[in-house]
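Worked Example 4.2. Consider the chain below.
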Amino acid sequence: MHRAAVKYSLRRVHDGRQRGFTLVEVLVVLMIISMLIVLSIPAMKGLTSTAGMSTAIRHISSIMTLARSHAIAKRTIVRFGIVTAWENDSEAAYRKYGLWEWDRAREEFVPLNEWKTLPPGLVFENSRGDYLRTSDYARKDGSSVRGDFLPSKDAEAFIEEVRSERVRVVFFEFTPSGGVRFPGGEERNVLAVVVNGYFDPSQGGSLVYTDQEKRDWSQFNIDTLTGRVRIYRP
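Applying the procedure from the previous section yields the following structure tokens:
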């Protein structure tokens, strides 16, 4: 009797281990997984946005450092320019940027490097937003948001020909002394801001902010006397 009871008990345990999940249990697990995925999407978007902004800061800073160093070393003028209009390519506006060097032999500016492009979802701000003045760093130091803004509608521009397409570029220049010249500028600093957004052709090319609460951006302050670049984040 005792052995029979033990065998019966073991058989029940063995049978229990072989039993699969019921349909209800599977549905509950799938529901939990779906909820976790939905809840994690905003966090993942935030991480992607932050990573893209960090990449933009690193690339722009390195390009400006290269421009200043090259201007000093070669005793020449190097332009840092931002595309504001690209014929037949609306997505290039306020996303592409590059450097141009003064060529003494040809007596014209020539590209110094290949075009650089901001990470997806990021653009250069095209006007000075009020959110800059209300930032924490502006409250601590009002001079941090004072300067000539690039790219603004009034900024001086030049036209570059790329594969027979006209490209409008606004710019400032690093000089052989290491300083900065902004045509028509009057302030001590030149400001440039990268934000989360895109320019919508269906709305007349206006800037659409994907970060409507203005929680993340990068502000570049370029000192016209020294060429020093400072970066501000909210």
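The chain has one domain: 55-232. Residues 38-48 have pLDDT under 50 and may be disordered. Compare this with Example 4.1 before moving on.
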